[in-house]
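Example record

Each entry pairs one chain with its bound ligand, pyridoxal-5'-phosphate.
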Amino acid sequence: MAKEQQPQAAQQGAAGLSPLFPTYARYPISLVKGEGSWLWDDQGNKYLDFMCGLAVTNLGHAPKQVKEKLKAQLDELWHVSNLFHIPGQEKAAALLTQHTCADAVFFCNSGAEANEAAIKLARRYHQKVLGNGRFEIITFTQSFHGRTLATLTATGQDKVKEGFLPLPAGFKTVPLHDVKALESAITSSTAAIMIEMVQAEGGVYPVDPAFVKAIQELCQKHGLLLIVDEVQTGMGRTGKLFAHEHYGLQPDIFTSAKGLGSGFPVGAMLGKGYLREAFAAGSHGSTFGGTPMSMAVVQATLETMVEENVPQRAAESGQYLVARLHEELGGHSFVKDIRGKGLLIGIECADAVGEIVLEGQRRGLLFVTAGPNVIRLLPNLLVSKEEIDQAVSLLAELIQEHTAVKSL
Ligand SMILES: *Cc1c(COP(=O)(O)O)cnc(C)c1O
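Structure tokens for the complex follow.
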């Protein structure tokens, strides 16, 4: 577009405007250093981190074992094309398949990309292997699957779709926990059902085991693939390495990202062995997928998780955190529900909680929301009891003060 055709705001240029696109409403804090459960800003203020970059730094900030592997890799090799064998990638995949129900892995760089790969694999399996032309993916209201065109279409929240029409065809959304709606949404075009075991962005809603069972039966009956989005729930977050283990479930495909690299960008799509033949050389790829750097980090993260029993520790700390929250907040009229799994915890409140998040930051505690009324707590999985106590006391104080001010 020529300069004179640009809208007024764009012509104003750099004067006072950020050189970044305004895709985030950023908090007025610049974090510059992190260690374990703690972060520091550029003014020297210290924060207890109960958000972990949104379920990313599951082993805390700069975990020693991972840092050492990454530094060692930095001296060896940064990047090589996937046109070559990458030993680190095969090792990381072997570790992942050894500790999960999956048999094969595709590495990429983010959660959205992992879900894209899952959608592509499901379609291709039906179209190329079974030869039935199926393409449709059924997802659930309030789900979140990413920001690419396909994954935002899969997402069951209208706000991520505004202004991006036309959306790609082949997606359908039904209400969570509604077996009838799900069954009637299935047609001869349906290829797969995609679900999170705990809807995280959508408000921290764990899926009911009876509903998971119904999904399994429908997949069986109609020949559908089951895709579990473990981008937020995976890597120990819910008290198991992956959340579908709580349900005794073996999904055909599941995805991982956030916690997979301890903060280094990496994603993975994992699937059962019979899906291998759906992909051939050239059918999918990623320049940066499975680079030696990210693979060193994935190996170190997984080894630490397994050797130090991190998922089990997350389960125990999660129980302790929920018990402490009930003690301090259980009887409070502002608190409607405390729910979640492991260290993915939601506190549903009677009203908007955005102000509480900001006041928490001013007092040195970082946490986030999941929808307007839900406080979401995502500490690292090695968080100590003392740190949990400290966060819960401050949170109780924040809620007391918030509700006292409101009732004046
Ligand atoms: C964060 C998230 C994604 C998207 O991951 P990106 O790495 O931001 O692309 C997808 N699904 C779920 C459940 C998530 O929480």
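The radius of gyration is 22 Å.
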